[in-house]
Give the backbone structure.
Amino acid sequence: MNFKGCWGTKTAINAIFKKSEREEACQEIAPFLYDNTISFNVAKSKVFRMILELVAKHGIEFKPPSYIEIRVKYIK
């Protein structure tokens, strides 16, 4: 079945879902920064963007580091 006349293309449908997923994530990032007193300027940081890209690359199965891992293992 071809939905081209109704939706444009399958790509357009996928883009709608991706936009929705992005919006959902962004709506969680902003309050996270605010609740943890992190400057909104962090959004301009190359490191912040790199972190989000790496998390996205690992997908839904990515497990964030624990408090102990951050505090002991990863802080140098």
Q: What stands out?
A: The mean pLDDT is 85. Residues 4-74 form one domain. The radius of gyration is 18 Å.
